[in-house]
Structures are given as structure tokens and as C-alpha cells.
């Protein structure tokens, strides 16, 4: 009996021990899940990463001019700008540069200012999550001290690496550049978030818009490109215009998760130090990665700013929260260039709607206007267009050369390009070329002139063209190789498989845009035309003009936004991009804009 009791007691103790071990294991698993899911160290380890508090720092003043104090805190760069604005989804490049935003607070000495322009040395003490640390002194002379140190020692050796870092030969000279001499070398920077939680966000800035520069990327205001991504630091990275070297430069602002440029890290080698990385040159077509999922596409164009003889409004929306809440990837790219570089009386306006990805649309939107400009640099061809009032050959050659230059085998895009030019008497003419279903029409004297042709497989014109090839479509056949378009740019693979595909553009008639005729042009991707007819679009334009009879400067932008709102109201299920051109107004706008 006693032995049985002992066995029972031993069994109970063993069961209790096993239960305790199981509870401990469950607690450990819960702790691990919490740690890796919520990363609590981000909220507790900032002070140690930024800088340890030393004895006597509590008595330091908030702002100091002391050189020794600045030397002690030389790793904490400060900025001479007061950030106030947020990033807007539609960057207002078509308006004159705004007066709010980055307000210049302090002028550096001439020597430090010159080097700051050349090396783009600006900084911030910590992530906005921390606020101001106890004992931290905000300094006016830290930037100056850092610049003097750069003057003595030059750039770090790692700036000679293959990511377009500046070299010793690129260091700025001791004289301030003459801004008048380079006024014709301004640049237009456009950023488009192509993946991540903020996909579809975009903004643009001119190199001459000092009120908006430097442009910051981060998770919290006042970052100009505001990214709702918890893996992005509050102030993650910064883009500046280097006036000495006439280039855009990207610098990591001591972010926790680092910054990649074309998959190469550009942050400081020791991410825990929260020190800034070195400035890296940006080029058109680059991809910036912040966090792990947010990719930002870079487009850079040279331009001059001048009086444009008509109003321009451009806007786009991926229409993300459609199809039952599913986010749509943004595959549209819209752009305009007025005037074309070196060809003052010609300009282009275009939309590319990608499928299978945005790669082909990006390529076409870059190559196509370049091809038009290259062809028109030939004075003989240019004069032939002006005197003959016909640009059919130019447009046809540009599309052919663009298709030959593209290397997109599994991605394709529509392409609609409106070419506008003026003769010696300031008479304006317009002609359009397109492949795909991104449509354009011109309204003049109350009459609509269709400038494009629909190239869906189901359209009558395409069925007739395909039948002429000798391989007619079967009854009920609405797609070729799974695509509903028979003409596009790119898609090299399916074109090799089926000869019925084509990249030959439809060329419209030339339209003479009469003065005081109320003429306007509207280009849009099929996201608009799926839910809005030409007639309805004209009604919206007339109604908006009637509501704003005295406004001319921003009227084109308002009309473009009204069109976009109508597409939202009608619950379009596709990316929507719109360009509205009001030939009855005159305004000063930036001569280039690209909106992926």
C-alpha cells in the first residue's frame, strides 16, 4: 500500500514538472513572436545608437555657437531648413513653385556654402520617433565643422566605388557657380513608388525649386515623399540637387534598415551608428529601395522653364481599392515635354499603359520622345514638317525605332503620342500616333475629332487588318495569345510566336488649332474611357470652365482632376492616367513632367 502511494505521488510530481516545462516553452515562444513581429528594440535602443549622454550635458544650452561644443558633436549633422510640408499624391509641378515647404533659415559662410553645394552635406540628429534626446544640443556650426573637415581630407575612399560616387577630381572649386550661366541646364526629378504599402505615390520637383529642396523620404511628416511603411525610418533618405556638379544626389540619413540604389547599399557601413551615408549620384531609370518592399522609380529630364502657350493638366491614379479591395499595380506612365530639347517649336504629350508589368511602359515613355527629338534635330525633316504641315513620317519612324530599341519580351504597353508644333506665324498644329487602346481626341468649335484608333482584337479595324494578313480570326475569338490587344510596343516573345501582332502605329490627320476656338485635347488610358465617353468628357470640361470663368492658370489641372474624380465615381477597374491640354490659355509651367 505504501509503495502504491509512493508511485502515485511520484507520478503526480512528474506530471506537474512536465506541465511547468510546457508552460515555460509556450511563454518563450510567445516572447519570440512578440520580439520578431513588433521589434520593440526600435523604441528602446535609439538613445544608445545615437549618442550616450555624458556628464554635464544636461546643462548644455539648446542652441550653441561654441566651436568646441560643435566639435564634440561633429557626428550629429543638422539641417539649415525648416520642414513644414507633406508629400501630396499629385505633385504640383504645373504650378509656379510654392512658397511653403522648405524654408531657408540660416545662411552659411561663403566657404561652407560652396562646399555644401558641392558635397550635399546635410543631416539630421535622429529619427522622429525619438524626438529630442535629453542633453542633446542643437548646433549651428556642426555642418560648418564637417565641411571644413571635408576640405582638409577630401571625400572618403569608398566614394570611388561603382555606384557613381564622386571622386577626388569631382570636388567643387572654390568659386560659387554662376547660376545665370547654367540656367538652361535645369533638371526635372520625378519619383514613383512602384511597390510596397505606398505603391502609386508619386511626386516631382525641379532643380530650381529651392523651396522644395532638399527632398526627404520618410515615414512621418514633414517628409516630402511620405511612405506608409513601418520598415521605413521617420527620416530615411534625402535627395538634393548638387549645383556644382549639376546632378541629383541621394544620401541615406542614418536609417535603421538602410537604403539601396539599384540593389547596392548606400547607407553607412555601421547601421547602428545612425550616421549618414555618402552622397550618391542618381540617374534616370534608377530604383531606390527603402525598407524591404518599398521601391521607388527615378526619372530625370533636362528642361528649360518658359512661357508655354497653353495650359496643361496631368494626373493619374492606380485605382487601388477596386476589385473587392485588391490593390492594383500602377502600370501607366504619362509624360509631356514642351519644348523638346533644342527644338523650341515642338512638344510631345504621351501615355503608355503597360500590361504584364510597368517595365515596357517606362521604356517606351523614355525612348519614344527621345526618338522624336532625335529625328526632328535634322533641319531638313523639321522644315518639311512645318512647311508641309504633316509629321506622319516622323511619328512612324519614331515608333519603329522605339520598338527596335525596346528589349521587353514578356511585357508590353500601349503608346499614344500627341505631337504639337508651331509655325513662324504662331499657328499651332497637332497630330497623333498610337498603338493600343489609350485614346485621344481634340474638341474644337464644339466638334470632337478622334485622334486615335482602338487596337483591341475585337475592333473592326483590327479584324480587317488581321484578315488581310491571311490569318483571319475565328468566330468568337477575342484574344491573341491571351492578350486583348493586337498592336502594342514590347511583347517581343508573343510577336515571335504570332505574326498577327503589330507595332505599326495609327497616324491621325493633322489638326490646325485655331485661335479663340476653345480647342482642347484629352489623352487618357482606358481606365477613363471604360467608364466615360467622349461626349461626357466634353460636358465635364464645359461645366468646369463655367464654374471657373476667370481662372486660367490652374484650370487645366482642375479639369484633369475632375476627369479623374469622374472615373472614381464610376468605379473604374483599371489604372487611369489623364493629360488635358487647353489650347485657349497661356501659362508658365515646367517644360517636362513624367508621372509613372
From TrEMBL:
Disordered: annotated segments: 150-181
TM spans (from-to): 7-38
MF annotations from Gene Ontology: metal ion binding; protein serine/threonine phosphatase activity
CDD domains: FHA_PP2C70-like, PP2Cc
Domain named FHA: residues: 215-266
Keywords: Hydrolase, Magnesium, Manganese, Membrane, Metal-binding, Protein phosphatase, Transmembrane, Transmembrane helix
Every PPM-type phosphatase domain range: 311-583
Keyword Membrane: yes
InterPro entries attached to this UniProt entry: FHA_dom, PP2C, PP2C_BS, PPM-type-like_dom_sf, PPM-type_phosphatase-like_dom, SMAD_FHA_dom_sf
EC nos: 3.1.3.16
Entry cofactors: Mn(2+); Mg(2+)
PANTHER family, alphabetized: PROTEIN PHOSPHATASE 2C, PROTEIN PHOSPHATASE 2C-RELATED
Protein name, per record: protein-serine/threonine phosphatase
Originating species: Gossypium mustelinum (Cotton)
